[in-house]
């Protein structure tokens, strides 16, 4: 049996450890490299030539979406499975647009991740059940998403702004300066034609980026 070499990209070492144990229990699966940033993922990919990459989206600095795009530019045959907490169809569509071959949410059962890895390795496309449902609803709705106007990083910032995080908290989470986050914030408002932050939240809910019942106070 050919070995399936895996590159794990997540900025939490404890999380990576858990996934490594889960994956290496599967026959022929071996985690050959790990990274915690987009730049680290790109370097690790070039150095280890893995069979498949398991990529988180929320990384310090440039996002996982940027890492997906960068790796796929260097190697168009790269098989990348996004594994993230982001549950909206908008994020999944952005990930596939960037070149991902699969999208599984972290709320999925562990077996779903294992199945998705096997499918992506065989050359297929994989989505977890919750995302499949979201994508189907979006396709049936036939509406063009407002988020088509936004770059991947802008989608990420919008999701965090709309969920109630302060500029400082977002800056810390993404390892960017508060000024950079403010610039993104103003740019997103302009692109979407949002009158104020309340309107921005409403647009994010309408686009499926956040759910009305999961707004948090991050102040």
From TrEMBL:
One Pfam assignment: Response_reg
Domain HTH luxR-type intervals: 143-208
Domain Response regulatory: 5-121
Keyword Phosphoprotein in record: yes
Residues with the 4-aspartylphosphate modification: 56
Keywords of this entry: DNA-binding, Phosphoprotein
CDD domains with a match to the protein in the record: LuxR_C_like, REC_NarL-like
Name of the featured protein: Response regulator transcription factor
Organism name: Methylobacterium adhaesivum
Lineage: Bacteria, Pseudomonadati, Pseudomonadota, Alphaproteobacteria, Hyphomicrobiales
């Amino acid at each position: 049996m050919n070995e399936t070499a895996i590159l794990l990209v997540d900025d939490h070492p404890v999380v990576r450890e858990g996934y490594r144990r889960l994956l290496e229990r599967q026959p022929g699966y071996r985690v050959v490299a790990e990274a915690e940033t987009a730049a680290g993922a790109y370097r690790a990919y070039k150095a280890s030539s893995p069979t498949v990459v398991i990529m988180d989206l929320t990384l310090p600095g440039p996002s996982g979406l940027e890492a997906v795009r960068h790796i796929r530019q260097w190697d168009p045959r790269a098989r990348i499975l996004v594994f993230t907490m982001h549950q909206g169809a908008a994020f999944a569509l952005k990930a596939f647009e960037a070149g991902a071959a699969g999208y599984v949410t972290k709320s999925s059962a562990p077996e779903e991740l294992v199945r998705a890895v096997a499918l992506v390795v065989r050359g297929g496309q994989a989505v977890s059940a919750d995302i499949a449902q979201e994508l189907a609803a979006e396709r049936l709705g036939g509406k063009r998403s407002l988020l088509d106007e936004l770059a991947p990083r802008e989608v990420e910032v919008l999701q965090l702004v709309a969920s109630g995080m302060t500029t400082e908290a977002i800056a810390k989470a993404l390892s960017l300066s508060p000024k950079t986050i403010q610039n993104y914030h103003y740019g997103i408002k302009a692109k979407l034609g949002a009158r104020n932050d309340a309107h921005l939240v409403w647009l994010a809910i309408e686009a499926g980026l956040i759910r009305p019942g999961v707004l948090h106070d991050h102040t």
